[in-house]
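Journal club side-thread
Mid-discussion, someone asked how the predicted structure for our own chain would compare to the paper's figures. Pasting it here so we can look after the session.
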Amino acid sequence: MKEIKAIAWVPQRGSNNNIEFPSRLPKDDFLLKDLEPLGWVKTQSLEIPHLSPTDVTTQAKLMAEHPEWGSSSICITASFTPGSVSLSAHSLTVAGFEWGRKNLDTSVNPPGFNPNMSERVQLLLSDRILGMTMVPEGRIWNYGIGLTQLWSPNISYNMILDTPLLFWAEEHRPAAFLTVSFIKHLVSLGYVAHLHKSSSLLLKARIVLMLKIVSHDSFGMLSYFCTYK
């Protein structure tokens, strides 16, 4: 039995279909001393009895690229079912590891995938929580909604003790807030009436803002690493 002692929100770029982690895992000689990696956690909108092809691939590649991730490492899924949240944990079978580490097909139904490539493992919950959360310096971890152009698998980061920013935090999508500020600035200058009569600039600005918000809604995956003592 393993106890989760720390959760680290590493820099990441995710979508509804997959998640990208940095090539370098979190390291800290003091904060992570005597701790070892357990696995990662992801959210999903539907509960399924096995890991998806994308999750099998992600787990297998993490294990293949980082020897400290042994065969006992797991993926915990948090499913947002109507009116509740369901948690489950899965590990890979040998067949799942071999298929996932070689898989390059990111489609929903890649050839060769089998639901039996992962198996469910026991997960115990307790109301006694003693641990810590870690985030990158600057607290920015979500590069999937407004900072995607800054993402790189080789991104450099250091971890600190702190609470993570919200998924939709302003720091994660600064362009959207700049658009809102621009519209407010036009209003403050008294250009609103003029723009409505002789120009469609304000209307276009509103449309752009709406498109940005709609496009942001297509991203919903949050993943992070867990370590245990």
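Post-session note: The two ends are 10 Å apart (CA to CA).
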